[in-house]
Amino acid sequence: MRRARAAAAATALLLAAVLLPGCGSSGSSGPETVSIYVSLPLHGVRAADGRAIAAGARKVLERAGGRAGAVRVRAFYLDDTGGGARWNLVATAANARRAAEDSTTVGFIGDVDSGATRVSLPITNQAEIVQVSPASTATDLTLDTGGLGPDRYQPSGELTFARIVPNDEVLAAAAGAVRRAGGGQVLTAPDGSLRAALERCRAGSGPVLVVSPFALPPGRYGEEAMSLLLAAIRAAGPDASRGSVRDEVLATANRQSPLGRYSIDAAGDTTLRRVGRVRLRSCGL
């Protein structure tokens, strides 16, 4: 009888030790550390933009002490050019797969070029990772454009993409308004690339106004992309997961930021309509 009572008491003590917080348990099922992957052109013709965006993201995370509320956050900064002149399909896909295969990943910042986003997004989407683009403007990433549309890039059927720059439709509308006002030759800069705009320009045609999605220096978009994800992780709490962080990002409403006050709409687009304008003397690169 004494042995039975002793065994019962020992069992009760063991059970209490397991259930008490701090005794062999963290008291939470959530991860201690989460990861954000940043994929940008760090070499080649877009290196200046890519490095500025990366520096902005890094600055915000360092300022936050590597934390979002109770959650520790680490970031990995990857080059989507493979060391070449422009974004590279193999490198871009490898970056997205690396993020997808890391079980701690809850967010992905990238890419600059819309072509690169068309490669990385299907991979992060299937892994249920929210992808925040600081520069990709192609309309078909969020809206149907006559046969091409977001379903092609988000095969899971779930929205996991958000961008913090206006899309090409907004840029085209702004350029049209300037032309109608007598602004002369006006070009748009998809993805913020002045080079891409000027490559379409007729040499020797006189002053040119280029409408860009960057109303502020590119580094500020890196800051906001990281800030948005940190806010989402903080809102998701200590049990932050890919799904909860995605939901928080896509639920963004009336967010006050250095870019202006904005929401993320049902398609993943920002409601910001501010664009940048750069006046050039000629179309020379």
If you had to describe this structure to a student in words, what would you say it looks like?
This protein has helices at residues 2-19, 47-63, 89-101, 114-126, 168-180, 194-198, 218-236, 242-250, and strands at residues 33-40, 67-68, 71-79, 105-109, 130-133, 161-163, 185-188, 208-212, 276-280. It is α/β, with parallel strands linked by helices and 285 residues long. Strand 4, helix 4 (114-126) and strand 5 form a beta-alpha-beta unit. Mean pLDDT is 88; it is low at 1-28. It is 38% helix and 16% strand. Helix 2 packs parallel to helix 7 (218-236), helix 3 (89-101) packs parallel to helix 4 (114-126) and helix 7 crosses helix 8. The chain has eight helices and nine strands. It has a domain at 33-165 and 217-273: Rossmann fold. It is globular and about 60 Å long. The protein has a six-stranded mixed beta sheet with strand order 2-3-1-4-5-6, with helices on both faces. A three-stranded mixed beta sheet has the order 7-8-9.
Strand residue percentage: 15-25%
Summing up helix and strand content along with how strands pair, one would put the structural category as alpha/beta
In round numbers, the mean pLDDT is 88
The oligomeric state is: single chain
CATH-assigned homologous superfamily of the domain at 33-165 and 217-273 = Response regulator
What summary fits the major beta sheet?
6 strands, mixed
Radius of gyration: 23 Å
Q: How helix-rich are the residues, as a percent range? A: 25-40%
Please name the CATH architecture of the domain at 33-165 and 217-273.
3-Layer(aba) Sandwich
CATH topology of the domain at 33-165 and 217-273: Rossmann fold
Instruction: Please report the first level of CATH classification, the CATH class of the domain at 33-165 and 217-273.
Output: Alpha Beta
For the secondary structure, the number of strands is 9
Q: Strand order within the widest sheet?
A: 2-3-1-4-5-6
Structural shape:
globular
What are the low-pLDDT stretches, counting only 5+ consecutive residues below 50?
A: 1-28
* Contiguous helical run count: 8
